[in-house]
């Protein structure tokens, strides 16, 4: 057996270990799954759902909920497993909105540096972690999927920010779970006029990569990146945290996937968000995942708005894709959640 074959078998063995992990119960579903499509709990007619401490009811049985979660978990862990195998083939017919064009940066020696182009006007140099053999330890945990690709929710949040740059002027902004690109925070720092932007992720590899992207661009404000693990904040001893209630805006894209991290994310948002601040979160429904998140937000004390149509480019792309095979609104279309600590509307946001 050649060295290449031995390496391939070792990687496959690591991959199989992850995919069959009993701790996540990824394979506790039958072969005739229906992709976890669930009925929407909210009426979508108005495009905006406002909440005043009223918890959404969750329909369906506990078995149906578990069925939906395991299907969605299997889908994303399949993508992670592909990364572990160093497999660049595309299984899913839909993976992103393709509203971000990118090419390798010809003026950079590093082949992993790309120029991202958004809305024909905005340019950003981003370093991607690139094609590399992933280890099992690098992919385990809730804070890894941002290292694999750019998700539709990241595209959506970036486009929303670019359409509302004025609301961020002279504010402090925190991005949570930004992955290997921290796209939302970087695009805001380059083209908006905030006072300070802090982009974070729970994965050291992501933050190391983002730090390299920061050196590739000129920004309009102070920007820094650091490792922030949500489970390490939000407890009683953080009442005197140096960044407590510092941020007028908090950004987060597609960070609701893993149940075990959802409450930690909510605690982190509550800790860092200013009393008059707004958290902007983009995520698809994924069965009951979004509803569970909103229920936990209400239990924490948040008010929220849930928006379906919040950006013309994203909405038009959604209407185009909904007619195509492979596009599932339940798992692919990001909704926008605005979270407040107070019960009021901010029209400018």
Topology summary:
Blueprint: H1 3-19, E1 48-51, H2 62-84, E2 100-104, E3 113-118, E4 122-127, H3 136-139, H4 152-163, E5 172-175, H5 183-191, E6 196-201, H6 204-214, E7 222-227, E8 247-253, H7 259-272, E9 273-283, H8 289-300, E10 303-307, H9 312-321, H10 329-332, E11 335-340
Parallel strand pairs: 5-6, 5-8, 6-7, 8-9
Antiparallel strand pairs: 1-10, 2-3, 3-4, 9-11, 10-11
Helix pairs in contact: 1-2, 4-5, 7-8
Region (Disordered): 31-50
Pfam family, one: Methyltransf_16
Keywords: Cytoplasm, Methyltransferase, Nucleus, Transferase
Order of helices and strands: HEHEEEHHEHEHEEHEHEHHE
**Gyration radius, rounded:** 20 Å
Most strands sheet: 8 strands, mixed
Order of strands, main sheet, comes to 1-10-11-9-8-5-6-7
What does this structure look like?
Strands 1-10-11-9-8-5-6-7 form an eight-stranded mixed beta sheet, with helices on both faces. By secondary structure, the chain is an alpha/beta fold. The relative contact order is 0.14. The protein has helices at residues 3-19, 62-84, 136-139, 152-163, 183-191, 204-214, 259-272, 289-300, 312-321, 329-332, and strands at 48-51, 100-104, 113-118, 122-127, 172-175, 196-201, 222-227, 247-253, 273-283, 303-307, 335-340. Residues 6-48, 51-62, 79-93 and 144-148 have low confidence and may be disordered.
């Amino acid at each position: 057996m050649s060295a290449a074959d031995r390496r391939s078998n070792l990687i496959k063995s690591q991959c199989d270990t992850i995919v069959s992990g009993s701790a996540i119960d990824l394979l506790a579903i039958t072969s005739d799954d229906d992709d976890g499509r669930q009925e929407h709990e909210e009426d979508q007619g108005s495009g905006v759902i406002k909440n005043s401490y009223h918890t959404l009811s969750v329909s369906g049985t506990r078995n149906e909920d578990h069925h939906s979660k395991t299907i969605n978990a299997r889908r994303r862990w399949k993508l992670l497993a592909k990364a572990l195998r160093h497999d660049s083939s595309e299984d899913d017919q839909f993976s992103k909105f393709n509203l971000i064009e990118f090419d390798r940066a010809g003026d950079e020696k590093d082949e992993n540096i790309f120029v991202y182009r958004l809305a024909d006007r905005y340019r950003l140099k981003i370093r991607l972690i690139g094609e590399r053999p992933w280890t099992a330890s690098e992919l385990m945990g809730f804070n890894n999927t941002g290292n694999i690709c750019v998700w539709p929710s990241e595209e959506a949040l970036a486009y929303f920010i670019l359409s509302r740059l004025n609301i961020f002027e002279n504010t402090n902004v925190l991005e949570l779970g930004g992955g290997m690109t921290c796209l939302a925070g970087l695009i805001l720092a380059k083209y908006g006029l905030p006072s300070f932007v802090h982009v974070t992720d729970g994965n050291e590899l992501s933050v190391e990569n983002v730090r390299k992207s920061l050196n590739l661009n000129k920004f309009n404000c102070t920007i820094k990146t650091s490792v922030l693990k949500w489970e390490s904040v939000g407890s009683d001893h953080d009442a005197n945290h140096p960044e407590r209630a510092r941020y007028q805006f908090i950004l987060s894209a597609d960070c609701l996937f893993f149940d075990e991290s959802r409450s930690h994310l909510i605690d982190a948002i509550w800790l860092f968000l200013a009393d008059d601040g707004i958290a902007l979160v983009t995520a698809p429904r994924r069965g009951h995942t979004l509803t569970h998140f909103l229920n936990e937000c209400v239990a924490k004390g948040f008010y929220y708005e849930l928006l379906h149509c919040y950006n013309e480019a994203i909405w038009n792309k959604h209407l185009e894709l909904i007619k195509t095979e492979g596009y599932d609104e339940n798992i692919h279309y990001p909704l926008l959640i605005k979270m407040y600590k107070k019960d009021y509307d901010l029209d400018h946001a």
